[in-house]
Design brief:
Layout: H1 8-11, H2 16-23, E1 38-42, E2 49-50, E3 53-54, H3 58-63, E4 76-79, H4 87-98, E5 107-108, E6 124-128, H5 133-140, E7 144-147, H6 148-154, E8 182-185, H7 192-204, E9 223-226, E10 231-232, E11 240-241, H8 243-258, E12 266-268, H9 273-289, E13 298-303, H10 306-324, H11 328-338, E14 351-357, E15 390-392, H12 395-406
Parallel strand pairs: 1-4, 1-13, 4-5, 6-7, 6-8, 8-9, 9-12, 13-14, 14-15
Antiparallel strand pairs: 2-3, 10-11
Helix pairs in contact: 7-8
Protein name: Haloacid dehalogenase-like hydrolase domain-containing 5
InterPro entries: CDP-alcohol_PTase-I (IPR050324), HAD-like_sf (IPR036412), HAD-SF_hydro_IIA (IPR006357), HAD-SF_hydro_IIA_CECR5 (IPR006353), HAD_sf (IPR023214)
Organism: Gryllus longicercus
Length: about 400
């Protein structure tokens, strides 16, 4: 079989030896016309990269998922709890890392499902995180947006921890500031002390930090939080704090100060079933895009964190099992929320298998089985939900496993 010319993004990545081996039949990459009946959900940090360093096993693993023209032959999406960027930027980054052309529609960020929360899109929201937070919020549909930095400039006396940044004179326009109606937490901010102080102020004052209320209003204004990872794996040898650590600080401070629990209107990102359901919709769409018209029977979710990736995949597998048994009440709620076309689910998968890789947060040497890193609102967790169906060394071994199970080459 002749090998067609590859796109430039691939030709610079794939070695001539690898192409030659395909021509000679030493590998079946690019050479199979069998249509897959499965889809793959990839985590990114700890599976494909650590920080910005591509893991050695990743590029060749993804070459096995593409055709000779560089297009995907296996329905594939990337599900990350990162929330500090835009989908098209992450797709471009993945393409450069892997030497495979990844489209924006294959990327699910932690905040992606917020598109469906249309009841909040016209409210005045306070957003927290890093990167282009205003642009992210606008792309999701939010119309009235204030950042933490803008709030700090409007209410300068609120930020008092860093004495070098303290401003003791209040802004004369703060009384005209429109009340915050909801809080959207995209990811961990840079100055935690500032963010924690301002967020607690907003929650305790019903969105009006210029006013000291006579009584605490509770429940507080809605909080939509993305990315519950307590830790994530970067270049350092040990895991780093994630947005889940920031949320833990916020929950603890609010509880300590008010005596009441912080309430999340929605928790988005892994391990939320909503995020996996959204990814399921996206992988079905990708299957249609690459010409697969038969049903997808199985999903495989590859991740490095038992508290988010494995837990979330197993939780979603339970949901699919309920759906298969026609326990439809919860299913209907999720599908209505996502705006999914019911006819799409004629092709929907019936299972979601969790595959744990040992290149990220999880390490058998560090796993003492005592610490519980699961998000507060998901506790208590059945221990079996944190047990991966399969454990492999790296993402390349994960592809080997999937292809072997599916008898696919």
């Amino acid at each position: 079989m002749a090998i067609r010319e590859l796109p430039s993004v691939l030709s610079t990545k794939i070695s001539s030896r690898f192409l030659k081996s395909c021509k000679l039949g030493h590998t079946k990459t690019f050479c199979s016309f069998k249509k897959p009946s499965f889809g793959i959900l990839f985590d990114i940090d700890g599976v494909i990269v650590r920080g910005k360093k591509v893991l050695p096993s990743a590029p060749e693993a993804f070459w096995r998922l593409i055709n000779a023209d560089g297009t995907f032959r296996v329905p594939t999406v990337f599900v990350t709890n990162a929330g500090n960027g835009l989908r098209h930027e992450k797709a471009k980054q993945l393409s450069q890392w892997l030497g495979v052309q990844v489209s924006e529609d294959q990327v699910i960020m932690a905040h992606s499902p917020l598109r469906m929360f249309q009841q909040f899109h016209t409210k005045h929201v306070l957003v927290s995180g890093q990167g282009p937070t205003v642009e992210i919020a606008k792309n999701l549909g939010f119309q009235k947006i204030t950042t933490l930095e803008q709030l700090r400039h409007t209410f300068p006396v609120l930020d008092a921890v860093d004495h070098k940044r303290r401003i003791s004179v209040p802004c004369t326009f703060e009384q005209y500031f429109p009340p915050i109606e909801a809080v959207v937490l995209f990811g961990e901010p840079v100055r935690w002390e500032t963010a924690l102080q301002l967020l607690v102020d907003v929650l305790m004052t019903d969105g009006q930090p210029a006013v000291c209320p006579a009584t605490l209003r509770y429940p507080h204004i809605p909080v939509l939080a993305c990315n519950m990872d307590l830790q994530w794996m970067a270049e350092a040898r040990m895991p780093r704090f994630g947005h889940g650590a920031f949320l833990l600080c916020l929950e603890t401070l609010y509880k300590k100060i008010t005596g009441l629990n912080l309430i999340y209107t929605a928790l988005i990102g892994k391990p939320s079933e909503i995020t996996y359901h959204h990814a399921h919709c996206m992988v079905l769409a990708h299957a249609r895009q690459i010409g697969i018209t038969d049903n997808l029977k199985h999903l495989y979710a590859i991740g490095d964190n038992i508290y988010t990736d494995v837990f979330g995949a197993n939780l979603y597998n339970q949901y699919l099992e309920r759906r298969e048994r026609r326990v439809t009440r919860r299913q209907q709620n999720i599908e209505d929320l996502l705006g999914a076309d019911p006819h799409d689910w004629d092709q929907g998968a019936v299972s979601c298998s969790s595959i744990l890789v040992e290149t990220g947060v999880y390490s058998p040497d560090r796993n003492d089985g005592i610490s519980d890193h699961s998000p507060r609102d998901f506790l208590p967790v059945e221990e079996k939900l944190r047990e991966p169906e399969y454990t492999v060394e790296n993402v390349s071994k994960a592809i080997d496993l999937i292809f072997n199970i599916e008898n696919f080459e």
